[in-house]
Design goal:
This protein is mainly beta. It contains five helices and 40 strands. Helix 3 packs antiparallel against helix 5. It starts with 8 loop residues before the first strand and ends with a strand.
């Protein structure tokens, strides 16, 4: 059941909202940029205080609506606290249980005391650090109430975290990226977080404060680095004339000014009003190495772009007779004698890793001369490999699975195998695995019973000195099954999958933040595989049954939103 909201006023304001996974319009082409437009009009709830004769059920309904407004100078839920017997005892922060609907609500009265229990369908949780975790299940929440001296009902016991509907989260939050460094310090890693929209000033300060605090608890386990020394605080942030002046505490003196500037500029450039950065330490402007003057432009650190240098590569596919071809105006076979299945191309386009005809080997081949560099054999009984994946350091990642579990391997430099020690998905078959360009994150399709779930994990060095891939979390509550996936850019996946009400596989853009998935226009037919690359058109394998059964790799035109198909091709690939 769904309770009726009591007298909530709304107003349209110029700012934005994020959302947990929900339905949306169908789109085509590439998602533009990492950030979402925070200046779009949206509806803000104007909370109202408790009425003098409201019963416990209405008190709880109005309290939940008010707690989603983040009203007050610092988003301290000023009006929502009026519903509490002890307003100062409640400090929820941003930690939130996100639910889809109230399925049942029960009220129990006992004199001057009462309890209200809501049974909701939970979609997921936003942690205290802004990290989203999809976790759909039924959830019960009980509120205790008591009458005050004026015989009015007030909430005496409640959880510290917020309980908000998906619509409330849509209105009140936005997702932003915090930027940290990959282990080689040559590329940035986005760390998306949910941040409530309180005010423009509060938002910019919160972004910097969370950046200084380090990665979210989930990403902290990965091999990412930050340039800010421990204990560094924000003294002042002023944005004027497009210039963000960031004054850091004296602890920053021991840090690398260049590294700190790169992280600050990439994080703050998501705000419309920031075009340049001026860094100060303890109230004094500093000269950053490599920068002329004290003001840095938004494009000063483009070399650290998580999506690479912006060059768009050609796509690849497997021909009907098993050869590797580059997709130009028509498929162009590279090495006539080379036969491949599920190919993966290195970022320098000099090597290909492909699965053998029986599925139990991965062979790395030099694309300049056709020489075999390495062959990896499956170790599990009945083990079969899914499509391999390259990282930007020239390593191949390959997962083998059988009916009862999986095992992850790394082929270092394409020539030396290394078993990944900590592989937390070992109890589950894995249908697909893709390593992010920066090498710190892994996207996987995990078979859990009857569900093929999209999960995101982190990659790090294990205590034994080897590698580990752990901390896998679900990132979408709407995807009920997935067929294939690829990294579309540093914080978006392209997924062929199904949702409730859409049993046939469709294309979806899936932010790794847990924000809204976006359905995309596909080429038609039965979609089987996908390849993606930042700025490049999507490649999708479609299977057509009539008038004859065949596979075609189709390429999306960003300019016209149309699909061009290459007959009798399959297994699309981009570098990575």
């Amino acid at each position: 059941m769904r309770r009726t909201l009591p007298f909530i006023l709304v107003a349209t304001v110029l700012t934005g909202c994020a959302s947990v996974p929900s339905g949306s319009q169908v789109v085509g082409g590439r998602v533009t940029g990492h950030q979402q437009p925070i200046d779009d009009p949206y509806v803000r709830v104007i909370p109202v205080g408790p009425g003098p004769d409201w019963d416990p059920g209405k008190i709880i309904t109005a309290f939940q609506a008010a707690s989603g407004s983040f009203d007050g100078p610092n988003g301290e839920h000023k009006v929502a606290r009026e519903y509490l017997a002890c307003g100062g005892c409640w400090r929820p922060g941003v930690a939130t249980v996100v639910y889809d609907r109230v399925e049942q609500s029960a009220v129990q009265l006992d004199g001057d005391r009462a309890s209200v229990t809501d049974e909701v369908y939970q979609l997921g949780r936003i942690g205290a650090d802004g990290q989203y975790l999809a976790d759909p299940h039924h959830f019960k929440q009980t509120y205790e109430l008591q009458r005050n001296a004026q015989k009015q009902w007030r909430i005496s016991q409640l959880p510290q975290e917020l309980l908000l509907s998906r619509n409330d989260v849509d209105r009140a939050f936005r997702t932003f990226d915090l930027y940290f460094f990959a282990p080689d310090a040559q590329v940035l890693v986005p760390n998306p977080v949910f941040i409530p929209l309180v005010s423009r000033t509060w938002l910019s300060e919160q972004l910097v404060k969370q950046l200084l605090g380090g990665p979210t608890t989930w990403l902290r386990g990965a091999a990412v680095r930050t340039g800010f020394p421990s204990g560094t605080q924000l003294r002042r942030l002023d944005i004027s004339g497009g210039v963000a002046t960031v004054d850091l505490s004296r602890q920053a003196r021991s840090g690398d000014l260049r590294t700190m500037s790169i992280q600050l500029m990439w994080t703050l450039r998501q705000l419309r009003e920031v075009d340049q950065l001026k860094l100060e330490v303890d109230g004094k402007p500093v000269q950053v190495p490599g920068v002329n003057g004290t003001v840095q432009s938004a494009g000063a650190w483009s070399a650290y772009d998580p999506d690479g240098d912006g060059d768009v590569p050609r796509g690849y596919a497997r021909t009907a007779d098993g050869r590797l071809a580059r997709l130009d105006t028509m498929p162009s076979v590279l090495l006539p004698k080379l036969r491949v299945s599920h190919p993966a191309i290195s970022y320098d386009t000099r090597q290909v890793a492909a699965v053998g005809s029986h599925g139990d080997t991965v062979t790395v081949t030099d694309l300049t001369n056709g020489a075999t560099r390495f062959v990896l054999h499956a170790k599990l009984k009945g083990g079969r490999f899914s499509t391999p994946s390259w990282d930007s350091r020239g390593n191949v990642w390959a997962v083998e699975s059988n009916s009862s579990g999986s095992r992850l391997w790394e082929i270092q430099g394409g020539t030396k195998q290394l078993a990944v020690d900590g592989w937390t998905l070992a109890p589950y078959p894995v249908k697909a695995l893709r390593i992010s360009r920066d090498g710190t994150r892994a996207a996987a399709i995990v078979q859990m019973g009857n569900i093929s779930q999209v999960q995101l994990g982190r990659v790090d060095r294990a205590p034994t000195g080897g590698l580990q891939a752990e901390g896998f979390i679900a990132i979408s509550s709407d995807l009920r099954g997935a067929v294939d996936l690829a990294w579309r850019d540093a914080d978006h996946l392209a997924v062929v999958g199904v949702t409730e009400g859409n049993p046939s596989p469709l294309l979806y853009d899936v932010p790794v933040s847990g924000a809204a998935i976006q359905p995309m226009v596909g080429p038609g037919g039965d979609m089987k595989a996908i390849a993606a690359y930042p700025g490049a058109p999507l490649l999708v394998t479609q299977h057509v049954s009539n008038p004859q059964s065949l596979d075609n790799v189709c390429r999306l035109s960003d300019k016209y939103g149309e699909w061009k198909c290459f007959n009798r091709t399959s297994d699309p690939a981009y570098p990575g």
